[in-house]
Design brief:
By secondary structure, the chain is α+β, with helices and mostly antiparallel strands. The chain has 2 domains: 1-33; 36-195, no CATH class. The protein has one helix spanning 2-31; strands at residues 37-50, 53-67, 77-88, 96-111, 116-135, 150-168, 173-179, 186-195.
């Protein structure tokens, strides 16, 4: 009897850590519930007007996996497109720096159970418009210098906005409208989304 009792206690002692580890793993697995996501296609359109006349329309599309849990803060989806524009810093013609000009869009989203999408966006658009001629000092042996000794310094315009929207599928919202104080041009930003099937 003693021997069977000792054997039983030894068996329990050997198996208990294994059983405890399995129970712990099950508890952790139940806590780690997988978050479902809904893939969405977000369209952003920058439209530029001079008075009532539309002069430019620039569409962009982003694909985002929106978690079906609005309280989550997923990572940002980012888009960068543009050019590098030379800027004269003074001195000789070789004394140039370059400025990134174009469109930057950062977006993230979450899906509500009622069919709406929470969309958080940071958008920035910059562009070159005209320029001013600045004199450039000659440098010895500079083959790239123009014969006139001048450089066309660009004028950079910029638009920046951050916003949160709640949208329904197919609904287009004019999220932002701004007027450039110098040129008088009006820039509008429209946002819409569709669920990717």
């Amino acid at each position: 009897m003693k021997r069977s009792m000792v054997s039983l206690m030894l068996l329990f002692g050997v198996l208990s850590p294994f059983c405890f580890a399995q129970d712990k793993q099950k508890a952790e697995d139940s806590q780690k519930t997988e978050v479902r996501t809904t893939p969405v296609k977000v369209q952003i359109v920058f439209t530029e007007f001079e008075g009532d006349k539309k002069v430019k329309s620039l569409p962009y599309i982003l694909y985002i996996n929106a978690p079906d849990a609005p309280e989550l803060k997923p990572g940002w989806v980012k888009l960068r497109v543009g050019s590098r524009v030379p800027i004269y810093r003074g001195g000789t013609s070789e004394n140039m720096t370059y400025l990134d000009v174009g469109t930057n869009i950062d977006a993230r989203s979450a899906n509500f159970s009622d069919g709406r999408l929470l969309l958080q966006m940071k958008i920035e658009r910059s562009w070159v418009e005209g320029g001013v001629s600045v004199p450039v000092a000659k440098s010895e042996g500079s083959a790239s210098e123009t014969s006139s000794g001048h450089f066309q310094e660009p004028i950079i315009r910029q638009f920046v906005s951050e916003f949160d929207l709640k949208l329904r599928e197919g609904q287009s919202v004019e999220s932002t409208m701004a007027t450039d104080p110098t040129s008088g041009k009006v820039l509008k930003v429209d946002v819409s989304f569709t669920i990717v099937k």
